[in-house]
């Protein structure tokens, strides 16, 4: 590698970097972290110290002047004391160029891994030394054709939207061509230099989010597996439906096929793209606020990491202003306000995916059976470059329903003579979701918001919005399939045509309303429609506890912006408050269980990090789920294992047969199981925290997992870059603190939550509040790597406002971007 001359001998730097490369790519060294640490500590202090000083000096230029190719006129980037760029430009086109430049300055590694994930090119970068996630992911992305669809989507962009994506790519490439500092440490450790940025690299992010936010296909596969082990009524018990009592069963044509084993293998072969998604949003009309104008609150919940997905930015031009949350790699603001309207998103959790079991033509395996006779698979060859080993070439097949997702690995196969195909609107090449977001960014009023988002395809979202005139609305745009038969909960036969999609719900039939008589719209992924809605969006909906709590807090009073910001930080768990009294009615053993029960009886359900009760309650629920369901579910239990208080209440009240452990000769009662689960939970906690429950703390185990995906695995660097912090909240609180119970090493770590929070004040949009979970920079040696963590955890916020003079007076750094003279006239 070549090191710039910064006063440090390049040879010594190279040796240290090469040493760290070996740590990154060698699993054996990672497993022997103590040895690696000893070796690193043995390096001459001058060398180690010099290397860190050199890296620390490799910061992006944030003041002075830089020439950008393609820029039409001078623009300025004013970074405030929190590292948030305020971009002042003569026109949006130049502002998008500037945004691409600053995104690349601060988050280039995040951008690189995002586009490689979408293109199915991760293994080319990291190989398989970390495990097979990269290769599994690449197989899936190539099979689904996400990047191909992203390339096709660009053709559907209006000239204005295309200009934004082109200008943004020019800004990124201006940084790649002209940066003077070394590339971020991740590039150095992997000896990698990024390719030029393309508009499709930005567009593929929307496809990735559509896939992650529409994960029903995994639920279908799990149900199919369970139906091979359990009765339909037992599966109904596991997934209490709305309305209850609807039977769940496989289609008759599939009863004699070993679908359960086939989908077990398919599910195992598909990579886990992250925890379940969730979000909160509520909108108040002026009649419900202290200002007489609307207020919107929104906090999307995704997996936590460092840096967080989101990046705050503000753009100011003579005719266009926008502020809020961007995603590095994408030129548009995903969430925020544009000075005229404000908006927020939650995921609808509608069922827009189906797994079709396709029958292969027994006379010709290159064809599959349809109602109109056998048809050929549409096939293409894909080659994955794998770092450190031979390329992998495989054939992708598609049916009339979608790509074949079975057979991605050796041994991954559905029933003999069949394949599994995924139908999903998010794979469509005519997806105009990017155009919808562009028009939303530029909407002048509520009507323009509605017109913009009707172009949105996937994932279906619940969008609350308001304008300065005072209109408040909600709309749930997206393509929702109309099924000829079935409810979408299990795989269905593809060869009969009975279960085909006949089209999509027209936009006018989708949930939408304006100016509610109650003065509020609230959604926290709960059912967006009631039982009187004439169409099927979904059969199952997420737990409604967060929505109930928000409604409870709002009451019928007026609220200020400060009130709403405090409500976003609420940590009352309704399941703890409502379900716990039922558990405490059962007889419990003497000793430590009595002490724990005494604490729980006086607890108000607040998931506070300095209290023992949240830890006791969550550990109890964890063991209850295992004690009730693991015996019947066997190897499928791990996929089902979550906090499920609603399901447990259903069991205790109407299906107590689940409490019997089928692996023992005795017949256990629910009272037996409740006592046993508490005893097991307390024994486990005592081993880690001592024998006095009153001294336990939720925060000792509930820590926001803000760690770097690669650097976090390295000795020394892992601890130096770790931003993890004790947090309040839990799975069911408005201040979301979700855990992954199946992780035996850290079952209560906070792995999923509100990486971004926004509160928008339509009376004065400059008074709106913003925060993200880590910091603006993706460089661990930057002062803005983790400077917002405590602010985020403790409910603080930032304002994104101020003119040029005000920002400079407050200490903002000014970077002037000037047009680079290329010898041609810019148009």
From TrEMBL:
Residues reported to bind Ca(2+): 220, 351, 354
**Alphabetized UniProt keyword annotations:** Calcium, Hydrolase, Membrane, Metal-binding, Transmembrane, Transmembrane helix, Zymogen
One of its GO biological process terms is:
antibiotic biosynthetic process
Coiled coil, from the record? none
Q: Name one GO molecular function term.
A: hydrolase activity, acting on carbon-nitrogen (but not peptide) bonds, in linear amides
User: What note does UniProt attach to the cofactor annotation?
Assistant: Binds 1 Ca(2+) ion per dimer.
Active-site residues are 279
- Where would you find the membrane-spanning parts of this chain? 29-54
Organism superkingdom: Bacteria
- The keyword Heme appears for this protein: no
Cofactor(s) for this UniProt protein? Ca(2+)
Instruction: Decide whether keyword Hydrolase is in the record.
Output: yes
Q: Which Pfam families match?
A: Penicil_amidase
Protein family according to the UniProt entry: Belongs to the peptidase S45 family.
Q: What is this protein called?
A: Penicillin acylase family protein
Organism encoding this protein: Azospirillum cavernae
Q: What is the lineage of its organism?
A: Bacteria, Pseudomonadati, Pseudomonadota, Alphaproteobacteria, Rhodospirillales
């Amino acid at each position: 590698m070549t090191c710039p001359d910064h006063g440090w001998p390049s040879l010594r730097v190279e040796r240290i970097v090469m040493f760290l490369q070996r740590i990154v790519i060698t699993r054996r060294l990672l497993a022997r972290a103590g040895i690696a640490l000893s070796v690193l500590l043995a390096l001459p202090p001058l060398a180690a110290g010099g290397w860190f000083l050199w890296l620390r000096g490799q910061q992006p230029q944030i003041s002075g002047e830089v020439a950008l190719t393609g820029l039409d006129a001078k623009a300025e980037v004013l970074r405030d004391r929190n590292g948030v760029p305020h971009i002042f430009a003569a026109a949006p086109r130049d502002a998008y160029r500037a945004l691409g430049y600053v995104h690349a300055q601060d988050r280039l590694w995040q951008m690189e891994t995002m586009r490689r994930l979408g293109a199915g090119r991760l293994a080319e970068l990291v190989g398989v030394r970390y495990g097979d996630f990269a290769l599994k992911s690449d197989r899936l992305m190539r099979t689904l054709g996400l990047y191909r669809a992203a390339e096709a989507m660009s053709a559907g962009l209006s000239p204005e939207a295309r200009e934004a994506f082109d200008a943004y790519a020019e800004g990124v490439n201006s940084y790649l061509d002209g940066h003077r500092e070394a590339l971020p440490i991740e590039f150095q450790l992997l000896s990698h230099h990024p390719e030029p940025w393309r508009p499709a690299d930005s567009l593929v992010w929307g496809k990735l989010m559509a896939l992650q936010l529409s994960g029903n296909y995994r639920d279908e596969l799990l149900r199919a597996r369970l139906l091979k082990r359990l009765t339909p009524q037992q599966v109904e018990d596991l997934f209490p439906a709305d309305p209850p009592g609807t039977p769940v069963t496989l289609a008759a044509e599939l009863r004699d096929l070993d679908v359960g084993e086939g989908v077990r293998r398919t599910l195992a072969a598909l990579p886990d793209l992250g925890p379940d998604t969730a979000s909160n949003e509520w909108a108040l009309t002026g009649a419900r606020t202290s200002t007489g104008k609307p207020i919107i609150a929104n906090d999307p919940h995704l997996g936590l990491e460092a840096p967080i997905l989101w990046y705050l930015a503000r753009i100011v031009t003579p005719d266009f202003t926008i502020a809020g949350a961007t995603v590095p790699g994408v030129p548009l603001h995903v969430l925020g306000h544009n000075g005229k309207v404000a908006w927020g998103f939650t995921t609808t959790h509608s069922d827009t995916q189906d797994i079709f079991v396709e029958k292969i033509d027994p006379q010709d395996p290159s064809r599959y059976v349809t109602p109109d006779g056998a048809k050929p698979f549409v096939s293409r060859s894909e080659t994955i470059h794998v770092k450190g080993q031979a390329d992998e070439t495989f054939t992708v097949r598609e049916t009339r329903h979608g790509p074949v997702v079975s057979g991605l690995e050796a041994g991954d196969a559905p029933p003999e003579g069949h394949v599994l195909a995924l139908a999903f609107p998010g794979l469509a090449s005519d997806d105009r979701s990017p155009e919808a977001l562009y028009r939303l960014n530029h909407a002048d009023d509520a009507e323009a918001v509605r017109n913009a988002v009707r172009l949105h395809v996937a994932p279906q979202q619940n969008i609350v919005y308001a304008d300065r005139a005072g209109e408040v609305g909600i709309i749930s745009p997206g393509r929702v399939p109309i099924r000829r038969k079935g409810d979408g909960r299990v795989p269905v036969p593809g060869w009969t045509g009975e279960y085909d999609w006949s089209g999509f719900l027209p936009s006018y039939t989708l949930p939408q309303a304006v100016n509610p008589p109650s003065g509020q719209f609230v959604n926290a992924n709960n059912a967006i429609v009631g039982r009187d809605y004439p169409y099927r969006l979904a059969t199952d909906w997420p737990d409604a506890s967060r929505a109930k709590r928000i409604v409870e807090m709002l009451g019928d009073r007026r609220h200020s912006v400060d009130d709403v910001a405090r409500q976003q930080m609420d940590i009352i768990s309704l399941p703890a408050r409502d379900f716990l009294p039922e558990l405490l009615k059962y007889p419990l053993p003497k000793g430590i269980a009595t002490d724990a029960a005494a604490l729980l009886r006086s607890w108000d359900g607040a998931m506070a990090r300095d209290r023992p009760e949240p830890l006791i309650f969550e550990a109890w629920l964890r063991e209850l789920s295992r004690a009730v369901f693991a015996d019947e579910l066997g190897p499928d239990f791990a996929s089902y294992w979550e906090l499920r208080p609603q399901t447990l209440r259903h069991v205790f009240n109407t299906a107590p047969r689940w409490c019997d452990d089928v692996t023992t000769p005795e017949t256990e009662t629910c009272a037996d199981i409740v006592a046993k689960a508490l005893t097991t939970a307390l024994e486990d906690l005592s081993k880690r925290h001592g024998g006095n429950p009153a001294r336990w703390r939720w925060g000792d185990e509930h820590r926001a997992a803000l760690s770097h995906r690669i650097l976090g695995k390295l000795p020394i660097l892992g601890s130096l870059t770790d931003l993890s912090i004790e947090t309040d909240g839990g799975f069911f609180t408005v201040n979301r603190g979700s855990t992954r119970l199946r992780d035996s090493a850290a079952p209560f770590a906070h792995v999923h939550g509100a990486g971004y929070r926004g509160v928008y004040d339509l009376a004065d949009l400059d008074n709106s509040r913003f925060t993200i979970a880590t910091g603006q920079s993706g460089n661990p040696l930057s002062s803005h790597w983790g400077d917002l963590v405590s602010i985020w955890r403790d409910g603080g916020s930032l304002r994104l406002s101020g003119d040029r003079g005000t920002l400079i007076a407050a200490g903002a750094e000014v970077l002037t971007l000037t047009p680079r003279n290329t010898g041609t006239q810019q148009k």
